[in-house]
């Protein structure tokens, strides 16, 4: 079964648009906030498994990384 956005009316699967899906966080406080946001968007109680990039503001997404694996100091 393909991964899909947990927001019911999301158009990425229907229109076959490629975008990044973010897996729900494991931290309980953040996961609760995700589930509340998805439930509000869906108009019913929902559990967020994945949410696509279209449901985040540009400021919420990290597009430039400052630390790369080669930057690690090994003792």
From TrEMBL:
Signal peptide limits: none
Domain THAP-type: start-end pairs: 5-59
Keyword vocabulary terms for this entry: DNA-binding, Metal-binding, Zinc, Zinc-finger
GO molecular function, one term: DNA binding
InterPro entries assigned: THAP_Znf, THAP_Znf_sf
Keyword Oxidoreductase assigned: no
Pfam families: THAP
Protein name: THAP-type domain-containing protein
Source species: Macrosiphum euphorbiae
Lineage of origin: Eukaryota, Metazoa, Ecdysozoa, Arthropoda, Hexapoda
């Amino acid at each position: 079964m393909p991964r899909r956005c947990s927001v019911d009316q999301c158009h990425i699967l229907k229109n076959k648009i490629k975008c990044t899906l973010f897996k729900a966080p494991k931290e309980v406080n953040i996961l609760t906030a995700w589930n509340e946001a998805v439930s509000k968007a869906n108009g019913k109680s929902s559990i967020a498994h994945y949410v696509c990039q279209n449901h985040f503001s540009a400021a919420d997404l990290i597009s430039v990384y400052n630390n790369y694996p080669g930057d690690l100091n090994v003792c």
